[in-house]
Design a protein that fits this description.
With about 110 residues, the chain is mostly helical. It has one domain. The protein is built from six helices and no strands. The chain is flat and about 45 Å long. The relative contact order is 0.14.
Length: about 110
């Protein structure tokens, strides 16, 4: 799994920079988590897009504001690295689980 950052400063730059990291995060979260719930499915497409836009902007602006306080970033950075490592490992296992052909065969046998 390719992660475009290794520390909190790089993450905040990615989050608030031209790569639109905030939008990537919120889009992934919505597709992974919220699409499972009826309250989200019941919202109109435009409402979902508006919510996603506002949250992405808030993440980007929040990241930029946090970068203005290097002392806080320095304090948070070691914890961020732990969280990043655990998150990347967990996401890798989730992807491996989803694409595991043995799992799909067992699911098809149960369903069929």
């Amino acid at each position: 799994m390719n992660v475009p950052f290794e520390n909190l400063t790089d993450f905040l730059s990615w989050l608030s920079g031209p790569t639109a990291g905030g939008l990537i995060i919120i889009s992934w979260f919505i597709s992974w988590a919220l699409d499972k719930y009826d309250f989200w499915k019941d919202l109109s497409r435009n409402t979902k897009l508006t919510i996603m836009w506002f949250v992405a902007v808030a993440l980007g602006v929040g990241g930029h504001l946090l970068m203005q306080s290097p002392n806080i970033v320095e304090i948070i950075d070691p914890y961020f690295k732990i969280i990043l490592g655990v998150t990347v490992a967990w996401l890798s296992t989730q992807v491996a689980y989803e694409i595991n052909p043995a799992r799909k065969d067992k699911t098809e046998e149960i369903d069929g």
